[in-house]
Design goal:
two-stranded antiparallel sheet; alpha+beta; Transcription initiation protein; four-stranded antiparallel sheet; 6 strands; Dimeric_a/b-barrel
Length: about 110
């Protein structure tokens, strides 16, 4: 089994004002299905009101993330699944519920995690 990251940036989620309640209902339903299926690891959205902090090895902190990287925002779900095909199927279900395409990535296996 591998862990898959299913995600989207905030800008991808363009939903008409009257449709937000349905998006919330549908996306929560898919997450509930993943939990019931035993494949849900964790998920959520980046709190865009809390600015990122860059923490150095010496413990010093500066406001903001890597200056050269695009901002990290949007929603994320991590599922543990037996195959890439299963991950694609779950990503499609999440895309339908959220009304936007989802990016799919697989985590490298690490026996310590």
């Amino acid at each position: 089994m591998a862990k898959y990251l299913i995600s989207f940036p905030s800008a991808a989620m363009v939903v008409p004002d009257g449709d937000w309640d349905a998006v919330v209902r549908d996306s929560h339903a898919v997450i509930d299905e993943a939990k019931t299926a035993g494949v849900y690891v964790f998920g959520g959205g980046i709190d865009e009101q809390a600015p990122p902090m860059l923490v150095q090895a010496d413990g010093s902190v500066s406001e903001g993330g890597y200056p050269w990287a695009p901002p990290l925002d949007g929603g994320f779900t991590v599922l543990e699944l037996p195959s890439r095909e299963d991950a694609i199927a779950w990503a499609a279900r999440i895309a339908k519920a959220c009304r936007c395409a989802q990016e799919l990535r697989v985590f490298q296996f690490d026996p310590q995690s």
